[in-house]
Amino acid sequence: MNILAIVVTHGDLACSLAKVSEKLVGAQEQLHCYSTQVLSSEEIIREINDEIRTRNPEKILVFVDLMGSNCWIIGNKLKHEHADKTTVISGVNVPMLISFLINHARLEWQALLDKIVTDAQKGMVVR
């Protein structure tokens, strides 16, 4: 399945998470990172829409850091524009991105989403 995976966060978090995840499982071309510190919301949406037009993905997965934040709003604007193929997941972390990178080519869409969320939650432990 042709999936466009996008990470949108505050500060440098998006690219840092993507780099760490890719380092742990190998370089991937599927992750695209954007920072609201570097680009405006409109610029991020425009760049992502350009990528969507270029790649014409079957599915778009937008990982954001905080539900209700500007990043969340960006994700939901994209979902509104591409409703049939876009999913937004908040609370992005390294286990979530690693799960995507490892499983995107082998799982069906809903199974992939379930696996990503489960793995993200498993990565949060209190001791």
How do you describe this structure in short?
With 127 residues, this protein is α/β, with parallel strands linked by helices.
Describe the model.
With 127 residues, the chain is of the alpha/beta class. The protein has 5 helices and 4 strands; from the N terminus they run βαβαβαβαα. It has helices at 13-25, 41-55, 70-81, 94-103, 109-122, and strands at residues 3-9, 31-35, 59-64, 86-90. The protein has a 4-stranded parallel sheet with strand order 2-1-3-4, sandwiched between helices. β1 (3-9), α1 (13-25) and β2 form a beta-alpha-beta unit. α1 crosses α4, α2 (41-55) packs parallel to α3 and α4 packs antiparallel against α5. The longest helix has 15 residues, at 41-55. The protein is globular and about 40 Å long.
Summary tags:
127 residues, alpha/beta, 18% strand, single chain, four-stranded parallel sheet, Rossmann fold
**Outline type:** globular
Q: What is the rounded Rg?
A: 14 Å
The unreliable regions are none
Query: Could you tell me the strand content as a percent range?
Result: 15-25%
Main sheet overview? 4 strands, parallel
**Named CATH topology:** Rossmann fold
In CATH, what is the class?
Alpha Beta
Q: How many strands? A: 4
